[in-house]
Amino acid sequence: MPPSTDKIADARDRIIRKLSHENKELKHRLAQFMENAKYNENIMANFDEIEKIVLSSQTIQELLRVFTKEIRKRFGLEYVQVRLTDYLKNTFWSLTQLLGPNVRNLSLLEEKELTRYLSVREGPVLASDPPGEWKEYFFGKDHRKLKSMAVIPLREKEKLLGCLCLGSRSPKRYEPGNQTMLLKRLGTMVAIGLKNTIAHQQLEQMAVRDMLTGLYNRHYLNDKINAEFQRVERYNHPLSCAVIDLDGLKNVNDQFGHAEGDRLLRCVADTLRTSVRKADAVIRTGGDEFLILFPSTDLQNAVHALRNIIRRLKAAEFRTEGRLQKISASIGVAVCPHPKIRSADELISAADHRMYLAKKKGGARVEWREEKS
Questions:
Q1: Residues 348 and 236 in one domain
Q2: Which of 47-51, 168-172, 199-203 has the lowest mean pLDDT?
Q3: Is residue 354 part of a domain?
Q4: Cα dihedral value 171, 176, 181, 185, nearest 10
Q5: Which domain CATH number covers 246?
Q6: End of a domain among 175, 206, 237?
Q7: What is the pLDDT of residues 43-73, one digit of tens each?
Q8: 234 shares its domain with 137
Q9: Are 74 and 49 in contact (CB under 8 A)?
Q10: End-to-end alpha-carbon separation of the chain, Å?
Q11: pLDDT: is 58 or 244 the higher one?
Q12: For every residue of 206-260, which 3-state class applies, written as one string?
């Protein structure tokens, strides 16, 4: 018996409804797919831009400043930190030169302690509603609204350079197991950027630094003193120059060997470095001879600073084979503008001549007077 017209119509309606539902489902899935594709495309575009920033940075300071700003903007994050380990202290002579005037606000993490937080994992550590100890360790005091975080190790082979810390006010943003591949890629990118900037700045420092003491070298002196002398000529500001020669380094080398002599030179370098202002430049010109430039400093103030150096050298605790060794120096100082000093070389020569006068008078003194003709 053929099916009734009502049954045929009912079956047709069910098929239409089913097809309509499937069509809506397909449209929804397609919209989701397109949305995800667009989201992933935006993520990859952001990654490409960040990669350009990381690879084009020439200094660690630039990398940290620009990178954290861009990560906040492009990924809509409230908390972004790049924390560095104390590895940097062993890599560079001067963190102030490396990271600029804000270095005092920078807190370096101890590599061993950071390793304890990260356990043995090489990949990112994600936490939703992390403990307060973690928040403060990675983000400092201002973390009250942080609800989830990701900590991404930054490694150079076996060395832990630091970590990238990302925080969100959403508790679901960094749930464990979420986004780990993208975060790992981001960490690799930043680690490469750090490695490149460290290598670049190491080369820069090696070009102007004395390898034994970490002070500036003669190559730096040539550029620095010419620039300062031009400033004297332009603005008529005083520039004092001191030449320092150690008394008795040869005796230490002869009696105890050159390794002890090198240790003495490093002790003297540390004393000189900590006895002057940031604006002053301490240079090892060779052997046991040093030079200090005092910009915007007249003769009277320079002599005062140098006498303080004489006192600090005398008080320095330097022992060889258990015996306390006295450290002293002969210092000559000259200043410009001066009618008899017409170039940077003449300024150094005048200070050098007075250093020899101090040496002739028994050393351990500052000589600033012109020799009577």
A1: yes
A2: 47-51
A3: yes
A4: 70
A5: 3.30.70.270
A6: 206
A7: 667 777 777 877 788 888 888 888 888 888 8
A8: no
A9: yes
A10: 141
A11: 244
A12: HHHECCCCCCECHHHHHHHHHHHHHHHHHHCCCEEEEEEEEECHHHHHHHHCHHH
Determine, yes or no, domain membership for 344: yes
What is the pTM assigned to this prediction? 0.67
What pLDDT score does 37 carry? 53
Same domain for 265 and 173?
A: no
Residue 286: CB partners within 8 Å, gap ≥ 6? 218
- 286 lies in some domain: yes
Max Cα–Cα distance, the chain, nearest Å: 141
Q: Is the per-residue pLDDT at 94 higher than 70? A: no
Neighbours of 89 (CB within 10 A): 11
Tens-place pLDDT, residues 9-19: 777 777 777 77
Cβ pair 291, 283 in contact under 8 A? yes
Q: Taking residues 88-106, what's their average pLDDT?
A: 58
Give the model's pLDDT for residue 97. Answer: 57
CA-CA distance, 147 to 168, in Å (whole number)? 6
Omega prior to 171 cis, within 30 of 0: no
Domain count of the fold of the chain: 2
**Six-digit token string for 331:** 């210092």
Residue 141 DSSP label: S
Residue 321, φ and ψ in degrees, nearest 5: 50, 40
Domain with 182 in it: 57-206
Q: Is 264 left (phi over 0), alpha (psi -120 to 50) or beta?
A: alpha
Q: Which of 368, 246, 371 is nearest to 307 (CA)?
A: 368
CA distance 256 to 266: 16
For the segment 113-156, what is each residue's pLDDT rounded down to a tens digit?
A: 888 888 656 788 899 989 888 998 998 887 788 999 999 999 88
Assigned domain for 281 exists: yes
Assess whether 233 and 196 both reside in one domain: no
Q: Which residue has the higher pLDDT, 11 or 215?
A: 215
Domain endpoint, select from 184, 206, 228:
206
Distance CA 336, CA 344 (A): 9
The angle formed by the CA atoms of residues 95, 189 and 199, to the nearest 5 degrees, is: 40
Q: Above 50 in pLDDT, residue 105?
A: no
